[in-house]
């Protein structure tokens, strides 16, 4: 990947993920072998970065597990470097703060930080609620965020659990009751 200095900057992840917000965090799926997955769970919960799993052909079970625990996408370690870079760039694109002038997609939406903290929502869970407030379907959210529909469902279920609601209507009602009547940046 050092062949792409104009497209990537690789930095080590510090011990406290809340101190840095890279666009993309690469997570080697092999780290889940013989592990309780705490490190991955921490990245999913504490980081607003896209989480891209580095998958190994011989261990598709670990890739599936990482995606089930909230990773956003995966790329094979056996992929050519240019494909890996393209996957990283696609994951990073879902975290741009400005609209993509090429597609006209609006910027990522979130619920205000103080309300997020009160509810215990991750930034991604709050983002999903913002899209629910816009009455977007899971497939539309997935397309807009460059996520799988299953990842969108996982984030939404996590938000519902933290809010103590069971469906979209209850989630919208919760937002209205807490003064969130439209999505914020």
Describe the secondary-structure layout.
Blueprint: E1 24-28, H1 38-46, E2 50-55, H2 60-68, E3 73-76, H3 81-93, H4 113-119, H5 123-133, H6 138-145, H7 149-163, H8 168-177
Parallel strand pairs: 1-2, 2-3
Give a short summary of the structure.
The chain is mainly alpha-helical and 185 residues long. The protein has 8 helices and 3 strands; from the N terminus they run E-H-E-H-E-H-H-H-H-H-H.
Description:
The protein is mainly alpha-helical and 185 residues long. It has 8 helices and 3 strands; from the N terminus they run E-H-E-H-E-H-H-H-H-H-H. The protein has helices at residues 38-46, 60-68, 81-93, 113-119, 123-133, 138-145, 149-163, 168-177, and strands at residues 24-28, 50-55, 73-76. It has a 3-stranded parallel beta sheet with strand order 1-2-3, sandwiched between helices. Helix 5 (123-133) packs across helix 7 (149-163) and helix 6 (138-145) packs across helix 7 (149-163). The longest helix has 15 residues, at 149-163. The protein is globular, with a radius of gyration of 17 Å. It starts with 23 loop residues before the first strand and ends in an 8-residue tail after the last helix. Mean pLDDT is 77; it is low at 97-110.
């Amino acid at each position: 990947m050092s062949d792409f200095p104009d497209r990537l900057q690789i930095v080590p992840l510090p011990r406290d993920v809340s101190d840095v917000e890279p666009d993309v965090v690469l997570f080697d799926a092999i780290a889940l072998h013989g592990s309780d997955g705490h490190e991955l769970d921490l990245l999913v919960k504490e980081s607003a970065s896209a989480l891209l799993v580095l998958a190994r052909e011989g261990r598709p079970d670990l890739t599936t597990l990482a995606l089930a625990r909230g990773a956003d996408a995966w790329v094979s370690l056996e992929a050519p470097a240019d494909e890996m870079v393209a996957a990283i760039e696609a994951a990073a694109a879902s975290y741009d703060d400005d609209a993509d002038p090429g597609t006209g997609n609006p910027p990522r939406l979130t619920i205000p930080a103080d309300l997020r903290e009160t509810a215990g929502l991750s930034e991604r869970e709050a983002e999903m609620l913002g899209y629910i407030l816009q009455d977007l379907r899971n497939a539309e959210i997935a397309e807009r965020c460059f996520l799988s529909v299953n990842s969108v469902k996982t984030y939404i279920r996590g938000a519902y659990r933290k809010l103590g609601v069971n469906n979209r209507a209850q989630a919208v009602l919760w937002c209205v009751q807490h003064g969130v009547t439209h999505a914020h940046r």
